[in-house]
């Protein structure tokens, strides 16, 4: 049976259906999604126990099976065989749109390569929902999923994403690592505008915006929980010149320690502390070299005419 033919068990075309489900509020599901889930022959879930709550709420009794990163390789061939027999298979994630930081890409690619019908049933998506309410530039954005869990690797990833900083950068993060991520954002991007969107559409939804330092202070005092989306504003169009930064640093270091001066200039300019610190070291080196040169000149014996 070809991908365009219909299965005999209902009006739904044979094929693979990528179905978005609510982020948290059960009513954020489309009527079309309910139709597809009810008519499908099989629903693939990240966690069948999690999805069972939503399906039960809407009286959907379709057979379910687990599909996740740990069983994907052994499951995909079975799914492709069922698609080849003209069945209708729906793929859902625990929340939101499948394949957005969820398993499924390899299945979709294999199904498409095999010529099967693939249909998107759109709906909730955490990155888009967060972007719509963050108050950050939304005409261009980059979604980078989860960054590495270790600080050094995470900072390296953030450095690598600088080329995509023409728009808002969106990432997911675990609650236990949020303050560490905010620290790394400041280290790489400086006092940039950041929005943290937590538990979207749920009872304890929280959307908070500020500099990484301000947000870190808040979440140190109020331990975050739940699903978290972090949005990082693009850099300002006119970054200060190196000469301007050097002048600001020289003024600041006249009365402050190097560390405090770096923090003050980073806050004023929005530049990363790492870059400001490098300039501070360069200024100190230049100052020391100038002082050494001056002392050597003063120590040289003066030649007198004879």
UniProtKB/TrEMBL annotation:
This is Ribosomal RNA small subunit methyltransferase I. Its main location: cytoplasm. PROSITE patterns: RSMI. PANTHER family: RIBOSOMAL RNA SMALL SUBUNIT METHYLTRANSFERASE I (PTHR46111:SF1). Catalyzes the 2'-O-methylation of the ribose of cytidine 1402 (C1402) in 16S rRNA. The lineage of its organism: Bacteria, Pseudomonadati, Pseudomonadota, Alphaproteobacteria, PS1 clade. Residues 241-283 form the RsmI HTH domain. GO terms for cellular component: cytoplasm. Residues 16-214 form the Tetrapyrrole methylase domain. It comes from PS1 clade bacterium.
């Amino acid at each position: 049976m070809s991908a365009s033919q219909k299965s005999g068990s209902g009006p739904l075309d044979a094929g693979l259906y990528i179905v978005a489900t609510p982020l948290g509020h059960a009513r954020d599901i489309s009527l079309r999604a309910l139709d597809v889930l009810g008519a499908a022959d099989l629903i693939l879930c990240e966690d069948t126990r999690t999805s069972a709550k939503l399906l039960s709420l809407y009286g959907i009794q379709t057979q379910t099976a687990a599909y996740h990163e740990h069983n994907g390789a052994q499951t995909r061939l079975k799914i492709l065989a069922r698609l080849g027999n003209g069945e209708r298979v729906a793929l859902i994630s625990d929340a939101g749109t499948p394949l957005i930081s969820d398993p499924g890409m390899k299945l979709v690619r294999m199904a498409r390569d095999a010529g099967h019908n693939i249909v998107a049933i759109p709906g909730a998506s955490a990155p888009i929902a967060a972007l719509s309410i963050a108050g950050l530039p939304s005409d261009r954005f980059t979604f980078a999923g989860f960054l590495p869990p270790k600080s050094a690797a995470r900072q390296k990833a953030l450095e690598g994403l600088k080329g995509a900083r023409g728009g808002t950068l969106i990432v997911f993060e675990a609650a236990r690592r949020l303050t560490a991520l905010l620290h790394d954002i400041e280290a790489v991007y400086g006092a940039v505008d950041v929005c943290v969107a937590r538990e979207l559409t749920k009872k304890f939804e929280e959307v908070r915006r500020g500099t990484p330092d301000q947000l870190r202070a808040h979440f140190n005092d109020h331990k975050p929980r739940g699903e978290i989306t972090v949005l990082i504003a693009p850099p300002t169009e006119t970054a200060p010149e190196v000469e301007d930064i050097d002048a600001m640093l020289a003024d600041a270091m006249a009365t402050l320690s190097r560390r405090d001066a770096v923090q003050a200039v980073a806050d004023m300019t929005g530049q990363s502390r790492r870059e400001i610190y490098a300039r501070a070291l360069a200024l100190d080196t230049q100052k020391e070299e100038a002082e050494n040169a001056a002392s050597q000149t003063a120590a040289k014996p003066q030649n007198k005419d004879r």
